[in-house]
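Example 3.2
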Amino acid sequence: MEHAIIVEHIEKNYRSKKTGVQALKDISFTVNAGEIFGLIGPDGAGKTSLFRILTTLLLADKGKASVDGFDVQDNYKEIRCRVGYMPGRFSLYPDLSVEENLEFFASIFNTTIQENYELIKDIYVQIEPFKKRKAGQLSGGMKQKLALCCALIHKPSVLFLDEPTTGVDAVSRKEFWEMLHRLKDQGITILVSTSYMDEAGLCDRVALIQKGELLTVNTPKGIIAEFKGPLWAVKAKEMFRLLDAISSDPQVESCYPFGQYHHVVFKVRGGEEGKLRQIFQAGHFNEVEVHPIEANIEDCFMSLMKD
């Protein structure tokens, strides 16, 4: 299968007079042409540093990478003509209108809105009624759509989206991912980073990253299949005291809050419910709930962090 992005042993350090931070540690993975690949991890995991290296805005200290067959260091001019990049922060011109921003970015790449209108049509029709409005006066979801249009206006072969849904409402997030799948159907390779674990399931493959290190690269289903279970969800009236009681038990591998429940994994399989009941009884907990559940991506991430 053809690879649109190849990353080999990339490392990046940020140094100051007092401290040094290793943002990326021996990162290697590939992205297939025409797939949606997710880089999933919390803030500070190294996602933005990697994006800046792949879009030729930052030099790596070690390793090499290529985008569409072009080396990120030696062929940066070719890459900049072929990729679209939507940074994490809204970076368009707030004093220009929607239409003016789009025309400006089209002119940079010697194209026009009309020439590539079919590519952005499904997105642009949603903001076209506001085309005379200043970009800085748009809602979060509308800013997101405009930024995506500007990243697509020159018809890129690879699209980089750095945490595009951060701070956006749930409806706009859903609409945005629907747009990404339509772009994938047009043959565009998409690399998207996010700190929302639930968005991992919307990607073809994902890389889980933490503190500059890759934890795993697989399909969402593949990552879940590797989870070392079983997993239990527990609940009681005093949730903080329950967390402390379960975490203190030597037979417990992990226990962490998850919504209205705590998720629990034991070191040894067998008799988990009975062990939990003993903890409940010893701590005199009330309004107890306990049941086995299927792991999700976030559970897998928490497990991999402990390995």
